[in-house]
Amino acid sequence: MRNLFFKRIICIILAIITVKSVWTVSAAEEKDYKLCKVLIEASGGVVISEQNAEEPVPVGTMAKLMTVLLAAEEIEAGRLLLSDKLKTSSYANSMQGAQIWLMPGEEISVDELLKAVIIGNANDASVVLAEKISESEESFAALMTKRARELGMENTVFTNCSGYYDDDKQISSARDMAKLCAELYKYDFLRGYFTCWRDFVRGGETELVNSNEAVKNYDGIVGFKVGFTENSGYCAALGAERDGIAYISVILGCGDKDISISDAKALLSVGFSQYTVFRPERPKNVPAEIAVRGGMSKTVPVDCGSIRSVVLPNGAASSVTSRIVMPDYLYAPVRKGQKAGEIQFLRNDKMLFSVDIFVSDHVEEMNAQKALCIILKKLLTF
Length: 382
What we know:
The chain is an alpha+beta fold. The chain is built from eleven helices and 19 strands. Helix 2 crosses helix 5 (about 125-135), helix 4 crosses helix 5 and helix 5 packs across helix 6 (about 135-150). The protein is elongated, with a radius of gyration of 28 Å.
């Protein structure tokens, strides 16, 4: 009888889990999400492919990517160490959803908190980091949005550090999320967290399993995250690097988890198979100086800024040309750093980008007093 009783209890529990799973999938399939996609080159942020990429949509738990970025910036600045032990507040302990069940007063290292947030999607761990960096989750959320603006994420608003609560108020766009991932890509020490499939914290007591299945089977993967809430649908942001070239793909508002990940991987594969990153050479005819009218010197040296890379379809690099646009002379006074012209890089007569040619010294304006001094100096040295 006892065995029969336990079997019935187990069956009931399995039935509840199954019903809940089916309901979640059904809710995702029935909701009218706005599907948004983008593929960018990571180092320059060039958009290669897009669909509704600027559309502001709910992103739910993808907000944790900004939480991770702010933590990474604190670590990079030396204000936070991976070995630092942070204390769990009662508020952090109250978090629901994905968590590692931190208890009030429990201390845990920044290293393990990053594991919990990135690999385990833990809401309580997110709050512990937020409260350390900005005293309260509310002020941290304001910092998240402020940092988003600094990164040019104009369609983004965050109201909490986890994205689990008020998931309809965590708003961003595929393009904005790609910018955020491009910033995360700069932090090499984060890659071990982002690409880890399974790990443990708290002395092996708590297991973490990454829901980003791409870390197991996509060549060159460097991160970042997949997520789901009822209002955001399934979202995926992936980055991968091969032979020193990296691409980032973002899928938002998908009705199916597997499709969101496979579409994100497919976009990355388009980048690697159909495009190349090309850095044009500096033209050999860039002048070393430019004439100056009405100045204490007749010429002034010039230089040009660094030439960046561009993303081109395979085989298109040979069609890139350059031209120098520069006047015959400048009028004094001339200031160091002043723009003197530009190098334009074109493909099929369409501008790709330009690089400024700038003055690398000062030239004062000639006046009667200065002219007289020059004449007298020449007479005295005659």
